Amino acid sequence: MSALVSTGELAAHPGWRVFDCRHDLFKPELGAQQYREGHIPGALYASLEHDLSGPKTGSNGRHPLPESAAFVAWLGRQGLKSSDTIVCYDAGNGSMASRLWWMLRWAGHDAVVVMDGGLAKWVKEGRAVTLEIPSLPATTWSAVPRAAMAADVEDVAANRAQDLLVDARAAVRFRGEQEPIDPVAGHIPGAVNRFNGENVKADGTFKDAATLRKEYEALLGGRPPSEVVNYCGSGVAACHNLLAMEIAGLKGAKLYAGSWSEWIADPSRPRAP
Description:
Blueprint: E1 4-5, H1 7-11, E2 17-20, H2 30-37, E3 43-45, H3 68-77, E4 86-89, H4 97-106, E5 112-115, H5 118-124, H6 153-159, E6 164-167, H7 171-174, E7 192-193, H8 209-220, E8 228-231, H9 237-247, E9 254-255, H10 259-263
Parallel strand pairs: 1-5, 2-3, 2-4, 4-5, 6-7, 6-8, 8-9
Helix pairs in contact: 4-9
């Protein structure tokens, strides 16, 4: 499957499983509230804080990956089957939806896509929303997790001289000029910056594959995707860059989910600038 579907394609496939991934980093419960106030028919809610992240230890970042077994168990509680096509959406440009998209791939499920333009586009087109929350019987998830898709902090520390680290945060955060969330500003030494907002057009839909490929090939400078590790503040926006690379046909890059918020938890790790 393509990594994206349009609003029209989703509307034409009522049997697809749908997840609302809306989230506000500054108001963590806002997404769930918005979901209760209206969502795409058939959609369940996936909470970044509670469903798509593991327990925080104070040193593993703001949104650490859950253990794969815990995530697989959550998938089963949602009534998902290995034969399901799964669609993820958020409020707009896919930044939050891409986290679930990546995690489902990480859990071994390929039939997962992000709805281009998100709920904003869906509503603008006058499509239906509902207050009804679906309930489905639990299943046993059978996909095999793909641990090699993720890099942990030890991998990054050991290989940052060889791998290309791509930071998905806004340029002012990457340069250390502003840091609205984490206690320390800057970036991992040697990283390059690709703000994930550059993946989309003004209307919140993704740029076309050819444009994204041209932009990412220039960023990678001839490096293969297998040597690329994407990170951000807490492993969310980085998934948006991974989605953009997938659209561009540049497959095989990794996610460092702990990202900057984990990296700075140990003051002995180097920082730039």
